[in-house]
Fold this protein.
Amino acid sequence: MNHPLLALRDLTVRYTGRTREVAAVRGVDLTLQAGETLGLAGESGCGKSTLAMSVLRLLPASASIGGQILLDGEDVSTMKWGRLRAVRWTTASVVFQGAMHALNPVRRVRDQIAEPIVLHAPSPPAAAALRKRVDALLAQVELPAVKGDAFPHELSGGQKQRVMIAMALACDPRLVIADEPTTALDVIVQAQVLELMTRLVAEQDIGLVMISHDLAVLASTCQRLAVMYEGEIVEQGESRAVIADPRHEHTRALAAAFPTVGDPVYRYAPATSNELGLPDPPPATESPGEPLLAARDVRVTFTGRGRALTHAVAGVDLDVRAGEIVALVGQSGSGKTTLARTILGLQHLTGGRISFDGAELPTSAKGLRAYRRRVQLVLQDPTSALNPRHSVYESVAEGLRIHRVAGDEREHVAAALEAAELRPPEEFMPLLPHQLSGGQRQRVVIAGALALRPQLLVADEPVASLDASVRGEILALLLRLRARLGLAALVITHDLGLAWNIADRVAVMYQGELVEVGSVDEVLAHPHHDYTKSLLAALPTTG
Amino acid sequence: MSDIITPTEDALVEVPPPARGGGTLRYVLTKIGGGLVSLALVIVLGFLLFRVLPGDVVQSMFRGRPATPELMAEAEARLGLNKPLYEQFLDYLWRLLHGDLGESYVFNVPVTDKILERLWPTVLLVGVATLIAVGLGLWLGTRSAWRRGSRFDRISTGVALTLWSTPTFWLGMLLLAATSGLFPTAGLVYSDTPPDFLSQALDVAHHMVLPTVTLVAVIYAQYQLVMRSSLLEEMDADYLTTARAKGLRDDQVRRRHAVPNALLPTVTLVFLHLGMVIAGAVTTETVFSWPGLGLLTYDALRVRDLPLLQGTIVVLAGAVIIMNVLADVLYRVLDPRVRAS
């Protein structure tokens, strides 16, 4: 076998829209030998998913392919439909992004894993043999056979992704394409899934093309890295070399967006190219003032079916001082979002108390309204947080109207947009969300919060849905807001890098309790609790 | 790669969503309970509604025949109409509980007998028409969604919309005129048909053609449009890409993955729309003098036969409520996600 497993020769993919043609992939040359692993990095819209989907010709009808896609020596772009269907999943299979949607919700996962086996078998396999094969595949991904009888919604995110991997291996493919296989997962689950995939691919000598926007994830899994930018490959090489010495400025930006926790270079320094720069790190104060927000022994208990109690928050003490940025870190299901909702007065306390600026958290509707003016929320996904039919002006002014803020509304909106660094504000006011970029949308959400001049911002994963280059800009904005307005922030995140980038203190939440609270330097550099240690250990590292 | 440490503590293992459900019996009982409440409301409303209708019941009973005030008072007393309203209602409820819907003013037979006699022609007509309409609608809807924007899609959707907006009675009369002589225009059977089963069945089928065509034409469109739109919603789903990547043929992707998901909202709507089908049946039966419940309701309304009206309303509403309960239960069977919650 002297031809490579996958060879792309001057590959071009064009999408024909109603009015114009867009080249998503422009003249890409790429080679992958059998058993090799290649990471494909880039931001959303750089063409990396289009490139990956073109290998099995899974592109929408509006796409046209130029150049050659040689899969095991055969050109996919000119294959007949019958041959293409035969090649799909047997030569190359795909682990899709977001297993939640990539699995059929109304069919048991066993049947979904078995489907390609039956489809590609020369003669229909016996039911017992098929069952054994699926059980073996499930065992490979460390799932018990009974999970095969589950429906996708009965599995956790990590388990679903394992099912996707088992499915991808069903027909013993020679190439697996993994499209953002761990994006929606927690750090620890991500580490488990990556480890599993790396091991299986190495054991079975399968070639792997993994796509991600996270360089660290790719570097920890793949031998080689290719960085895509605007449809072209701008840099390619050994993972270690690319990470250590990025040549292209886009690679540098991608690398900087995911800081190395513990590296002082990244402390209070999210990647930003904004001319406003970064404020100086806050001076270390020995005697902290009165806390702005104080939670004492906060408990939230949910009663499930059959009277089972779930202690979502089980006795939490947390302070946020004026002008302080606190990161609340934990896995999904750790109770951090419930805690945040409680702090915002959106969730009743089962026990304990919360005080803000010396006064107890109000319970009356009127009191809560006044309180929420001072404590504002920034949500994860700006696209769904903004009403698609409201202009930027309307979105920002809504809070002002609800709270009947005195003064000229237009001036307030302009000031808020200015504060969120949407300049000049007049130009942004009439725009609708779909006319903005992801980062601009998040700035509009922040402006909406700022319009009410709050003292505390509660931000739930404020950059999780944003591109790498935008991530640093939004984080830098939070730092500048703190420096200029003395705005305190409670940032909820699963991303330890974010905490390292901007937070003064970090609180690690695990199963409803804060297992470790302290300054970022202390906790992340010298963790005490086992959970914090495993969180840090699960971070992908270049190796 | 060795520096990715997989935590070994059991406690760190990701927790899958909690297993719920198990209360299937409870779910079904809740739905049936809800249905009974609806039925009770229909019974109360049915009673009150026909008593606030303008016009005098007793007068209309005599329909122009000379009636002395004594005769009318006697009739009023016989029917219990001179009692206070709440007593009439209690009487009505008491008898309803015993399965007695009262006696028809006009036919002078128990309402239950009359309804039972007219039930099966309606079941036959509505049943056959619904089956045909559902089959036709789902098939057309699937085809037009899968080839969205094609000529087939445009034409079939246009035709469906046109037929849907056509008044039932007008369409019925149009059909009668267009096919004059080919099909019988009224009734269930000819009186001179031999009494053996085959001849009777063939004659009923012959009589059924026009009412069925009318009813199907009016109702199939909603099934087609619902199926089309719910399949369109599934068209961009990621699991269809997965299915294609597995090497499935286009029709296999559609049959095995897209349609089962698209059917979920459609099934519920099919059942919910049965109420409208029954409404459509009233008109159709009237136009074709099909001796079913619809025609009976129409006649009862015309001559103000209160017991008969109340009876038909209870039966028709009961049918719709039963269908709704069935839809809820069926949805739970079909969609594993609903089963769990």
